[in-house]
Amino acid sequence: MKNDRFLRACRQEKTDTVPVWYMRQAGRYQPEYREIRKKYSLIEITTIPDVCAEVTMLPVQQLGVDAAILFSDIMVPVGAIGLPFEIKSGVGPVIETPIRTLDDVNRLHDFDMEQDLGYVVETIQILNRELDVPLIGFSGAPFTLASYMVEGGPSRNHLKTKAMMYRAPEVWEALMARLEKTIVHYLEGQVKAGAQALQIFDSWVGTLSPLDYKRYVLPAVKRIFAGIQHLDVPKIYFGVGTGELLTQFPETGADVIGIDWRVPLSEAGKRVGDNVAIQGNLDPAVLLAPWPEIEQRAKTIIDQGKQHPGHIFNLGHGVFPDVEVDTLRRLTEFIHEYGRTSL
Amino acid sequence: MKNDRFLRACRQEKTDTVPVWYMRQAGRYQPEYREIRKKYSLIEITTIPDVCAEVTMLPVQQLGVDAAILFSDIMVPVGAIGLPFEIKSGVGPVIETPIRTLDDVNRLHDFDMEQDLGYVVETIQILNRELDVPLIGFSGAPFTLASYMVEGGPSRNHLKTKAMMYRAPEVWEALMARLEKTIVHYLEGQVKAGAQALQIFDSWVGTLSPLDYKRYVLPAVKRIFAGIQHLDVPKIYFGVGTGELLTQFPETGADVIGIDWRVPLSEAGKRVGDNVAIQGNLDPAVLLAPWPEIEQRAKTIIDQGKQHPGHIFNLGHGVFPDVEVDTLRRLTEFIHEYGRTSL
């Protein structure tokens, strides 16, 4: 591989400059992606290996980022274990028959990568041949996947999910156990196919109090990281609004903790400690600001990041469709340039 | 007034037990409220003084809480300055013609309490005669109101609002200035009519990084608290997901800081310091848990709250419709009882 600075930073090793990639770096902000979406739905793209590989590689070619992330949706393995979903435009994943009872959980199947998601294996094999940067495989984390499965779609308050935790802990634990097995096999399958790093998205876990996280979620996340420990790739754990949970995150077993924009990176670094690398954390909304403002904020993040052993530049959440491709290209160049002088 | 323990706690004075009220304590979880809503819309209720007073008093009678909060919607003053809105069931406030330009801001009127919201004055006068606990008047804060006005409704990412801050600071500042004047007059009008405390809801401000809060929002909030400083009533400032902003909140001039459930109360107390009282912070979702769990968590909050000079028990956000009236009644009793022994 030509460019391994992302992997080196994940491993807290010295790099020539600050590595960078962007969550949702393949997406609607790209005219080429919008063209492809005229022909295929998001989920269709994930099932056609050469199109999926093309979409995954586009931001690497266009922006010069230091890692690719498999183009997919966090709901893909949920569909594979027998819970059908639909991605509704402007809404997100919607599930007609949400999980409410132990019977609902027991009806979910076992997961088999080759059989259920052979096309993902094929996509990763293409990417492995074509990419000169590492490929990040990924999965949703159990709480975040469960929240869609229980609520039936995106939710502001995650009330049904929390109610299940509190009132039906046996259903909750069964659902966590089922998701743990699925996620471990799914991540394992991606690494076997050629993924060189993994990110676990616990996007909505920031809705939980530290006590609820510790009691109802952390054990499942720990078991997942334990289950993939034998895979010799860096493992990233990320969620939004997780400021008060950061001190617990190193216990998960992750090598890298993703930080959202609400916590200054210097403070986040203190909370997670020096034994894990950090990734983040520009507010994706700032990409709509005039360039000097973006540059100033990127500088601050790089300056704070270099105080920590291992920093990968990223956004605090995914790229929005309103962002200009040129802005992200310029930002990538700036990070590489300023990152070089600042190290 | 028979019961002033809420006001005493706001002023960091000694109380006989821990005072308690609940955000959205008048609402759909109450069968009586649901009956009234069959006849009137939410906004209609706010315009009919005797019905509005009845709805405001109901939770005081039913739960035994130590304060009433004027039944209203944060959008009421926004409608009064000339931006029509509609409360859509299951969505929230929706605005057909959102604010995007300086012309849009300049088209908003001046606010006149007596002329625009005479019925609110009348409602407060009724409540003043009937209540034996303090009445809290309230307003939305400028960021939170602006977010609805700019987005056109509730929003997950507040992208248009942030884009206005970054790209059109002159429009943003004009909007803040207009809202400041409106909010100050609105709060003043409520106190003149008889409100004995004020709460400013900056519900969505937690979407901002500490830098953005400091630069684009804190100055406006400070000017509002300065504008109502002459009113001799306790002033509360509250938002959700504000863990990283808490250290800035005492600068606003508020007497009490509302805390959401994500930050343990002991930690929140350290961040805001001893010169302000604190209010909170049970996760409203916990009200769906079995009673022993609710009791245990309420205990922890009271135990942590008593370490701080001035604590008012509340939820970390509003009551959900799925909660049982009996649960809140039992919780109120428990807080008064356990709060007495623990002080």
Summarize the structure.
The structure is a homodimer of 343-residue chains. The first copy, chain A, has helices at residues 5-10, 31-39, 42-47, 49-63, 76-80, 102-106, 113-130, 142-151, 159-167, 169-193, 210-227, 265-272, 291-305, 325-342, and strands spanning 68-69, 86-88, 92-94, 135-140, 197-201, 235-238, 256-258, 277-282, 311-315.
Can you put this structure into words, describing what you see?
2 copies of one chain form a homodimer. Chain A is of the alpha/beta class and 343 residues long. Chain A has 14 helices and 9 strands. Chain A has one domain: TIM Barrel, CATH 3.20.20.210. Chain A is 49% helix and 11% strand. In chain A, helix 8 packs across helix 9 (159-167) and helix 9 packs across helix 10 (169-193). The model of chain A has no long low-confidence stretch (mean pLDDT 97). The interface between A and B is medium-sized, with 34 and 34 residues.
The value of Rg of chain A in angstroms is: 19 Å
Strand order of the largest sheet of chain A: 1-4-5-6-7-8-9
Q: Please state roughly what percent of the residues of chain A sit in beta strands, choosing from under 5%, 5-15%, 15-25%, 25-35%, 35-45% or over 45%.
A: 5-15%
Record field, number of beta strands of chain A: 9
Which CATH architecture of chain A would you pick? Alpha-Beta Barrel
Residues in helix, % of chain A: 40-55%
Using CB atoms under 8 Å apart, which protein chain pair has the greatest interface?
Answer: A-B, 34 and 34 residues
Order of helices and strands of chain A: HHHHEHEEHHEHHHEHEEHEHEH
The DSSP helix count of chain A reads 14
The major β-sheet of chain A equals:
7 strands, parallel
Q: Can you tell me the number of structural domains of chain A?
A: 1
Specify the oligomeric state: homodimer
End-to-end separation of chain A in angstroms reads 23 Å
Structural class of the helices, strands and pairings of chain A? alpha/beta
Low-pLDDT segments, ≥5 res of chain A: none
Estimate the global geometry of chain A from the Cα principal axes: globular
CATH class of chain A reads Alpha Beta
- CATH topology-level name of chain A: TIM Barrel
**Average pLDDT, all residues of chain A:** 97
